[in-house]
Amino acid sequence: MAEHNDVLVRMVNIWKSFGHVEVLRGVNFHVGYNEIVGLLGDNGAGKSTLIKILTGVHHPDRGEIYWKGEKLIGYSVARARDLGIETVFQERALSEQHTIWRNIFMGREITTSWGFIDVKKEREETERIMRQYMGFTSAALSVDSMVGTMSGGEKQGVAIARALHFQADLIILDEPTTGLSLSETQKVLGFVEEIKKNGKSAIFITHNIYHVYPVADRIVILDRGSIVGEFEKTAISLEKLVEKLYLVARTGRLENNSQEVSVPKDQEKSERDLQSFMP
Amino acid sequence: MARLRTAEHRSQISVLLVLFVIIALFMIGSPKTFLSSDIYAAFMSTIPFSMIMALSLTLIVISGEMDLSFPSIMGFCGYVFTHVFHATGSFPLALLSCILVGLGAGFLNGLLIVKLRLPSLVLTIGTQFFWYGVTQVLSGGLGKTLVPTKASTLYYLFVGRIGGRFPAQILWAILIGFIIWLVLNRHRFGAHIYFTGDNPASARVMGVNVDRVKMIVFTQMGGFAAFAGVLASLEVLYFWPTLGQGYLLKTIAAVFLGGTPVEGGVGTVFGTFIGAIIIGILEAGIIAMGMTGFWTQLVYGLIIVVSIAIHSALRRRT
Ligand SMILES: Nc1ncnc2c1ncn2[C@@H]1O[C@H](COP(=O)(O)OP(=O)(O)O)[C@@H](O)[C@H]1O
Ligand SMILES: [Mg+2]
Fold this sequence. Notes:
The complex is a heterodimer. Chain A is α/β, with parallel strands linked by helices. Chain A has nine helices and ten strands. By secondary structure, chain B is mainly alpha-helical. Chain B has 14 helices and four strands. Chains A and B meet through α2 of A and α1, α9 and α10 of B.
């Protein structure tokens, strides 16, 4: 379909329920070429579910996905990877007890004949990748550093650098800054800018507007399974956006109207969501 | 710098030190035995059987799984070897069928674990009883001589004495150790074993076929258990229907002594190699030092607990 060709990926009218719970209700979502999209929403809003559909983990009950204008049929995790979609989960991205160079080439080893690993080449490439995408020149980290000894932000950096090296077109960052200190968060934001500079796209999932605003081109707000707002960054200031988010949290709506319905937050549910959302 | 990596090295050095300390103690406690080369020749003839299985088991443990059935697979394969040998008179045919049966039994473990999502610890308790039972039923509990195998040159290739003294089986153990080391540290498949044990979720996401890795590590375990069964039977020129029993804890202990943690994800072939030597020399050493056999279990226990505590501490220090 030609009208979907102008964007990298477009999800059309996505519905998904788990049992009786409608988690996604007719979501339309897209990511453009070389665009960083911030996907904002409270815990339990359905962000991870949407992303799992995009990465082939879950199948939608209804709806379609178009990749570079082409409708995806028989979608799977393997297919998503082949297309060039890489997800950077905080806990699921790396093998912590192994070196950076082993991690960079995890599952995509450089081999000589008979499947033997070209260790020298992998280490050299890793050194280049760390310099090029992560700006790592410090003596504190070498290609032989164990991932488990690195800081949270650096780990995200390795996973992002890996995705960039393998030419992923779309990098999905699921809560990449959650639980990180201020300086570590800054590092991650730097890596996200690197994605933009390399001409690739990203979805940055978070519930912290202050983290995503500086790096996003567009911000999409998901609330209880529906997209309730979408803003080009150039069209809205951070202050205005924060205001709107408060409104959504309180009312479930973007526009303030006279009969304000307050939707009470179910504490127990939120906590359950929080757990489902941990990897 | 890469601190965890040196922890791995420290753990290998520590297990080597444990070995040296034990040998030194034995030399002091029983110089007559431990300063003569006879005892070492004896070690080289008995250690390879559990060493080969421990090296093979290391791959399973690194992948985050466990196998308790290899001693029974060893026994059943010993039966197959003996039976086919007596039926056909052909050593190569007996060897081939025995190894194939071992690979098949290992593959079955892997298949059930992967396809039915069964915990390997539990499943292999089951297959352990099963293969032991099959061996008992088919052999009627009776052993059989293997003296006629001496007519084949393969007998000498496997358990002959080089220069009339040096047991050939230790060379097989070293060769197998080298091959397993090569695969684990230099081959793509070895990297996938580590990733599978360390973080299966990330391995899967990155395209590592975790299920296939598990199937293969269990399959090779069956094959090496079969091979060890052949060596052990040839060494005594007799097939005992209880072949394999008694190897379980010693072999597992060798892996853990060598620094491979039960959680998987890391571990070394070298560590297991030394671990198997330590386990193999303890019993003889304790008896040579004039203590009764009753002491062996106690000393085993102490050394295993102390070594594992050292490994664990070295890992946590990072
Ligand atoms: N596999 C699942 N089975 C049942 N319910 C699920 C499953 N995954 C998510 N949910 C539910 O869907 C809702 C949205 O979850 P999720 O997509 O993880 O939200 P978010 O990532 O925005 O916090 C939550 O109520 C959660 O409990
Ligand atoms: Mg989530």
